[in-house]
Specification:
Blueprint: E1 3-8, H1 13-23, E2 31-38, E3 41-48, H2 51-57, E4 67-73, E5 88-89, E6 95-103, H3 106-115, H4 125-136, H5 144-154, E7 157-165, E8 171-177, E9 182-185, E10 190-193, E11 205-208, E12 213-218, E13 224-227, E14 232-233, E15 238-239, H6 255-261, H7 263-271, E16 275-276, E17 281-282, H8 291-295, E18 300-304, H9 306-323, E19 327-331, H10 332-335, E20 347-352, H11 358-369, E21 373-378, H12 384-388, E22 391-394, H13 407-426, H14 432-453, H15 456-464, E23 471-476, H16 480-495, E24 498-503, E25 520-525, H17 531-543, E26 547-553, H18 557-562, E27 565-569, H19 577-595
Parallel strand pairs: 18-19, 18-20, 20-21, 21-22, 23-24, 23-25, 25-26, 26-27
Antiparallel strand pairs: 1-4, 1-10, 2-3, 2-4, 5-6, 6-7, 7-8, 8-12, 9-10, 9-11, 11-15, 12-13, 13-14, 16-17
Helix pairs in contact: 3-4, 4-5, 7-13, 7-14, 9-13, 9-16, 14-19, 15-19, 16-19
């Protein structure tokens, strides 16, 4: 969740660190801080609130120095305030540390350290870690690297850390376990970040730090990587492909709106190189070694969280309908605890935008221990899930900055469609003409989304009517049920309006009690096979004075007449409808949030990459 950026090299560190923190704002945070080594020694500046508050705090203070660490914190242990903000330091204030993750046994360690004379200023687990490193380095014949190795071998939990030593201004030490950390290799300089976005202006050469690896980063010379037991690891330098313009708004008011508009291109990027329309051929190169296992699977389990879970639920509908394989969709956060039976011939598909979701990573490890084949679907190249799974496919959605996921969701669904078609084709379920028709229609989806985006001005006018609504219901049948839940999630995430998504038929089993003239009901009614049932449900809503916003297919005059507001979308194959019907729901959430003057890209209490439980 939090963000780390660090620098060592010939340049002044402060401007690089502050700019890097701003690049990491999308991850979510409630305080920030920076530590530098200069003529005044170790200087630590911290502030509750936004990075602008930190910049105000350091005015007229010494911000010189060519080595430094910086952090954006999302509070876990201790309330967000100036004291609990990172960096944290030891009692003698010669070590400073930034930390992402959670130290689960911090309380036990804190008791031990107190017995050894240590005092604590904060409520955080991270201060315990820097004090523990200080304690370990007092052991005979223990340098700082060894102290870090000993300390991290004693902790239970997840961490990505960078350590600054006042007595050695020519070295940083970094380490990680279950929390992302990447090193950027510049021109006689090194960067460290939670991801590569803070230093893309300077280098695209990176090293992804592995689990339980410790990295010594010198001012000059090559870095050294060891494991916790001091086994040396050869660094693997990779070149990342990321467009710096993806980090800019490109004329849009918010990243979220930009990313909604990018969906035609991001869906095409997900399909690019994987479909040959003329030869009626499709493949997913990343999982080709496991294609036969997929085709012959008796059961597929999908694990994910949040928006990715909704994509997974659509994956269940797609795989069961097209490929005729039973699918179970599990919240990763529950899957790891409920002792579900997992067998060696199961296929587990883990879905995550960031590839760093802690609960999903834990579910992957559980499935691997049980002997299942684990495939990953994620967006970030080189992420933890990409490395932890047996194989997988990238969505290639491009950088997504807005916390509320939009283009990543539609790219995940697109990839699940491709996977379903590939399995169905391999099983011989699809006739050639049927497969060709589906592939051709899938290629038309981006243009159909563009037609929906042309309706944005009228969607905005309609959305502003509901600026002060307090509750929303979202209803949909079949493929549109997961879309209803995703639409409700988008609204509650960024506008803070309570919203729930339900299967339409479940309305009579409870939610109907909530319907009155003050409760807008968004009805996704784009399934011709259930057209009459959709009409009946809408009539039930109208009979109770509910206001209906319907998402309908072009030309559906009957539902249009029943609706208070309607948004028409182009017709397509029922399996592909979610890719189009979700777009107006994203726009509704966005425009209501803007009308309510909410922080659309950085909604309260939320983070882009959830790297803790």
């Amino acid at each position: 969740m939090c963000g780390i950026v660090s620098y060592i090299g010939p340049k002044q560190a402060y401007p690089l660190l502050i700019n890097g923190l701003k690049r990491l704002e999308y991850r979510g945070y409630d305080s920030s801080g920076i530590a530098l080594i200069n003529n005044d020694g170790l200087c630590v500046y911290k502030s509750k609130g936004k990075i602008a508050d930190l910049e105000e705090n350091v005015k007229n203070k010494n911000i010189e120095g060519t080595i430094g660490i910086a952090h954006t914190r999302w509070a876990t242990h201790g309330e967000p305030n100036n004291v609990n903000a990172h960096p944290h330091f030891n009692e003698t204030m010669d070590l400073a540390l930034v930390h992402n993750g959670i130290i689960e046994n911090y309380d036990t360690l804190k008791v031990m350290l107190k017995k050894n004379g240590y005092h604590f200023q904060t409520e955080t687990d991270s201060e315990v870690l820097v004090q523990l490193i200080d304690f370990m380095r007092k052991k005979p014949r223990t340098n700082l690297l060894k102290a870090v190795q000993l300390a991290l071998a004693s902790v239970v939990g997840a961490y990505a850390i960078v350590l600054l030593d006042k007595n050695n201004p020519n070295q940083l030490i970094a380490a990680r376990k279950s929390s992302p950390l990447v090193i950027g290799i510049g021109d006689n300089e090194y960067f460290v970040g939670s991801d590569a976005t803070p230093f893309l202006d300077f280098t695209k050469k990176v090293i992804y730090v592995g689990d339980e690896e410790v990295v010594v980063i010198p001012r000059r010379g090559d870095i050294m990587i060891t494991t916790l037991d001091n086994t040396k690891v050869d660094p693997i330098v990779q070149h990342i492909e990321m467009d710096i313009t993806a980090l800019e708004k490109g004329g849009f008011d918010h990243f979220m709106l930009k990313e909604i508009y990018e969906q035609p291109e991001s869906i095409m990027d997900t399909m690019r190189g994987r479909i040959n329309v003329e030869d009626c051929y499709l493949q997913l190169g990343g999982i080709m070694d496991y294609k036969e296992k997929l085709i012959n699977a008796k059961r597929i389990i999908i694990v994910a969280c949040g928006t990715s879970w909704h994509a997974g639920l659509l994956g269940e509908y797609l795989i069961e309908n097209l490929a005729r394989i039973p699918v179970e969709v599990e919240y990763a956060s529950e899957f790891r605890y409920r002792n579900a039976p997992i067998f060696a011939d199961d296929i587990v598909i883990a879905i995550s935008q960031s590839g760093e979701t802690a609960d999903t990573l834990a579910a992957i490890e559980l499935a691997k221990k049980k002997g299942a084949t684990v495939l990953g679907i994620c967006n970030v190249v080189g992420s933890s899930i990409a490395r932890a799974t047996n194989a997988g496919s990238y969505t290639h959605a491009g950088q997504e900055i807005g916390v509320a996921s939009t283009k990543a969701f539609t790219s995940q669904v697109t990839l699940l469609i491709l996977m379903s078609l590939m399995i169905a084709d391999g099983k011989g379920i699809l006739e050639k003409n049927q497969k060709k028709a589906l592939i051709q229609e899938l290629m038309r989806i981006p243009e159909k989304i563009r037609k929906v985006l042309e309706k944005a001005p009228e969607i905005q006018r309609m959305s502003e009517v509901f600026t002060f609504a307090r509750n929303f219901l979202y209803l949909g049948r079949a493929y549109n049920y997961p879309v209803a839940m995703e639409g409700a999630l988008k609204l509650k995430e960024i506008s803070y309006i309570h919203a729930e998504g339900y299967p339409s038929a479940e309305m009579k089993h409870g939610p109907i009690a909530l319907i009155d003239k003050e409760t807008p009901v968004v009805f996704i009614a784009t399934t011709p096979s259930n057209h009459q049932k959709n009409i009946s449900n809408i009539q039930e809503i109208k009979a109770r004075q509910g206001r209906v916003i319907s998402i309908i297919l072009e030309g559906d005059e009957e539902i249009k007449r029943l609706s208070d507001f309607y948004i028409e979308i182009p017709d397509t194959e029922e399996e592909f409808t979610p890719l189009i019907s979700v777009v107006p729901l994203q726009l509704i959430a966005y425009y209501i949030a803007v009308a309510r003057k909410c922080n659309v890209d950085q909604p309260r209490n939320l983070a882009k990459s959830v790297t803790v439980e």
